[in-house]
Design goal:
two-stranded antiparallel sheet; 2 strands; elongated; 16 helices; about 350 residues; mainly alpha
């Protein structure tokens, strides 16, 4: 005699498998944009748990038609097999006019099974369309350029995961797309994956040897790794062939400044400042500091004042101007230091 608790226990176990399968489907929907391999992993695990749930569902005892109550047979393990068997039985009954179902219970059971089939069919259709939309290559007619433009917008908006996906899609459609390689490398650099970023920048330079953005970002990777000489070596030929590439000049100046070679740094900073119209709090602050250390206080004061025109809350600039300027003008900056420190 079978244990009366076996049925509920098996149902509980089967429900656990089904719930686990749904959890992995939800995980697939959440993380599919991160990496395509996650789709296969989560979908495979979900299907496996659904199989376990179907297999674990308790077997059901039913009376075969035209048999006495003393003879019972067990249906197949799977609910699907039971439904299919019922369908075949209906076909046999409809083909034999002399055999007609009279049991209301049997009709109710049949309707329940048909409803189950419909629900499963709807779910399967939804799942097929969902997976198809993920793996579709058409993607609303997007081409490599469209993916790249979308990725660029996402990158500048700070949506790096989405940008990563669309840069890669652009490269899938065009593996010689140098701009997409640089964008992809930029995402890697934002993730501090410098080796991967460097590979992408080098590939872009192989395709377009004079691609300034690729060279600049390669130099920036070296700068972030504190490899300042390597950064300068990458930038030198670029600056020689592009005398108006001011972003490169600022990065070269930063590398020399980090090496405490202030004269070389100032040379690049001045060109960018005078000819390129580069103006910022950091640039004016650094240039003012270099002139200050060189004893050229007049230029240092002008640059320090320019810093305050961009940001009047820089305490150490007020403090230094209070030291450099005499009398009432100096008193003004010294008073500002006290006010700022009290805020």
């Amino acid at each position: 005699m079978e244990n009366s608790n076996a049925g509920p226990d098996l149902r509980k176990k089967a429900r656990f498998y089904f719930v686990t399968g749904y959890v992995f489907l939800i995980a697939m929907a959440l993380f599919w944009s991160v990496d395509d391999s996650l789709i296969f992993i989560f979908l495979g695990i979900a299907v496996y748990f659904f199989y376990l749930g179907i297999h674990a569902w308790p077997k059901k005892n039913t009376k075969e038609p035209f048999q006495t109550s003393g003879y019972q047979t067990r249906t197949e393990n799977s609910e699907f097999a039971s439904v299919l068997k019922n369908v075949f039985r209906k076909q046999h009954q409809s083909a034999s006019p002399s055999v007609k179902p009279f049991s209301k219970t049997g009709t109710s059971e049949s309707n329940r099974r048909v409803t189950t089939l419909v629900i499963l069919a709807i779910f399967a259709t939804f799942l097929i369309f969902f997976i198809g939309s993920i793996f579709s290559n058409s993607d609303n007619g997007y081409d490599a350029t469209a993916y790249f433009q979308t990725a660029e917008q996402q990158y500048w908006n700070g949506n790096y995961d989405s940008a990563y996906l669309n840069y890669r899609r652009a490269l899938t459609l065009n593996d010689k797309y140098a701009e997409a390689m640089v964008g992809y490398g930029n995402v890697m650099m934002m993730r501090n994956q410098y080796d991967s970023a460097m590979i992408m920048f080098d590939k872009a330079l192989e395709i377009e040897p004079h691609f300034n953005a690729a060279a600049y970002n390669k130099a920036l990777v070296y700068y972030n790794q504190q490899k300042y000489d390597e950064s300068i070596n990458v930038l030198n030929p670029v600056l020689e062939s592009n005398p108006e590439y001011y972003d490169g000049m600022l990065l070269a100046g930063d590398s020399y400044y980090a090496k405490k070679k202030y004269d070389e740094a100032l040379a690049w900073y001045e060109i960018a400042y005078e000819n390129g119209g580069e103006r910022s709090v950091n640039l004016c602050h650094i240039m003012g500091y270099i002139y200050d250390t060189k004893g050229d206080y007049s230029k240092a004061i002008d640059l320090y004042k320019e810093v305050l025109s961009y940001d009047s809350t820089v305490v150490n600039i007020h403090q230094r101007l209070g030291e450099l300027l005499p009398n009432e003008e100096g008193n003004f900056y010294r008073t500002q230091v006290v006010k700022l420190q009290q805020q």
